[in-house]
Every structure is written in structure tokens, then in C-alpha cells.
Design a protein that fits this description.
alpha+beta, 8 strands, 4-stranded antiparallel beta sheet, 38% helix, 2 domains, globular, 179 residues
């Protein structure tokens, strides 16, 4: 059966601590198999038919809300999508080499043109963005602590949920599973 990855938003923030053992158990309680976690930051690998992933996302969110008592936005990508994200080059090589960090935001659906325009108004000398499908790439030219951009600012300005991961994490994930 194909593998997929659930990227969870804010699983361990605001005083909440969920062990990776418990997280795996919650996913198994939803009926998923082959459940593993990758780096203790809300990345869960599992086996699932690709045609049912939207329903699986909702089941995971409902289970975590009921079990943990707070909302945990969930964004699922297939193994093929992970490989494509890891290989994608949203900026020129020179920009990537000189940047401090490259992050990717996972969205539930692609952004509309008006939302993309709004995002692009957030560009600064430190921050640049590139939208591709259901992902937004954030190039941070300095330490992220020097940037005024954040996941919370993104969600508030564009009225949508997202979770960010470093592209290095996605590349490691793709390499580990040979996607």
C-alpha cells in the first residue's frame, strides 16, 4: 500500500506535549497502518490508499481534537508529492546558496490569485515567497528570528491554515524513504 505523510500544525505548542508513541497510537486508532514518526515535530508516515486522503485528513483531525482537546490542522501528502517537493527548485541556485533558510508551507488547497498577490505584498529584503500548487516556499535570507514573517502572520493575513517545515527536513524524509 502507498505511503503518505501527515504534517501536523502545532502538535506540541502552548504547553501541550504529545509523545511520538502517543501520536503513533492515535493514528493507529484511526485505522492507519505502518505508522512511523519522523523527527519529533509532527511528521507522521503511514500507509493509506491515495484516493481517500482527504477523508483520512478529516478523521485524523477529529481524532486528535477529541483525544487531545485542541485543534491540530493536518496536511497529507503522498510519497510522490514528497519526492516532487524535495526536488522542486522555487528559487535560483544563487538565491538558495546565500539564504539562511528555505521553508515550505503545506496548505489544504492551492491559493487563489488574490491570495497569492496578498502573500507577495509580504516580501521584504529578508523574506521572499514562491507559490507552487498546495505549497508556499519561504526563502529567509537572514535568521528567522530577524524576520517579521511567521506562520501565524501568514494564516491571519491570508485566512487559511498552514504548517511550515524546513526544506532540509523534506529532503531527508524523501531520502530516507527513497521517494
Amino acid at each position: 500500500m502507498p505511503k503518505a505523510v501527515a504534517f501536523l500544525r502545532a502538535i506540541n505548542v502552548g504547553g501541550h506535549v504529545v509523545t511520538m508513541d502517543r501520536l503513533r497510537a492515535e493514528f493507529e486508532a484511526v485505522g492507519l497502518e505502518g505508522v512511523e514518526t519522523f523527527i519529533a515535530s509532527g511528521n507522521v508516515i503511514f500507509e493509506a490508499p491515495s484516493r481517500a486522503l482527504t477523508a483520512v485528513e478529516r478523521r485524523i483531525e477529529e481524532r486528535l481534537r477529541g483525544s487531545l482537546g485542541y485543534d491540530v490542522a493536518t496536511f497529507i501528502r503522498t510519497e510522490g508529492e514528497i519526492g516532487a517537493i524535495a526536488a522542486y527548485k522555487p528559487f535560483k541556485d544563487g538565491q538558495l546558496r546565500s539564504a539562511y533558510a528555505l521553508n515550505v508551507a503545506f496548505l489544504a488547497k492551492p491559493m487563489e490569485p488574490a491570495a497569492v498577490r496578498s502573500l507577495m505584498t509580504m516580501r521584504t529584503l529578508i523574506d521572499d515567497f514562491h507559490v507552487h500548487g498546495r505549497e508556499v516556499y519561504w526563502l529567509c535570507r537572514k535568521k528567522q528570528s530577524e524576520s517579521r514573517f511567521s506562520n501565524a502572520k501568514f494564516e491571519k493575513a491570508l485566512d487559511r491554515r498552514a504548517t511550515f517545515r524546513g526544506v532540509k527536513t523534506i529532503v531527508k524524509l524523501a531520502a530516507k524513504y527513497s521517494w
